[in-house]
Design goal:
The protein is an all-alpha fold and about 170 residues long. The chain has helices at about 1-10, 25-45, 50-75, 80-100, 105-125, 130-150, 155. It is flat and about 50 Å long. The chain starts with a helix and ends in an 18-residue tail after the last helix.
Amino acid sequence: DRWRAHDTHTRKGTSIGKAGGNTECLAFALALAVVGIVVLFAIQPLLPAGVMSLIMLICIYSVYALGYDVMFGLTAQSSLGQAAFFGLGGYSLVLTSLRLNFPLPLAILTGLVVGLAAAFIIGAIAVRLSEAYFVIITLLYASVLLLLANNLNKITGGNDGLSFNLQPFNLLGM
């Protein structure tokens, strides 16, 4: 009983469960992110391509981790479908770049829209379910997308996936 009361307190308390509980911290984090992006744009021409690729991967996986933080920290829900949405957006980006010859900004936007649309559709169904069923439906979605990705060899590359050489892209146009 004592453990259950502590668990309920931490979920509904100011640290985890209450949205908007610490707006100063959120504003500081947002300002820090904006400053970081501006600094990255400013030093981008000075960095070698390998370092910039590493920074971009760190940024991508940081956004992925933030999705987990929102899902587990703010909503206290367990989802096993995060990787499926991430993968669907990634495949959309690569396929539109390779097959449709979209420029990189448009391909990124396409990947974002496809991932968000899938998350919205599955989320609209799954959020109405209880906790156990929510986990099951998100696991089912991830499993179906994994099977599709592995079995549609001509589209997704099967178990090997897709790869392509990204041409250097300068966001500032320099």
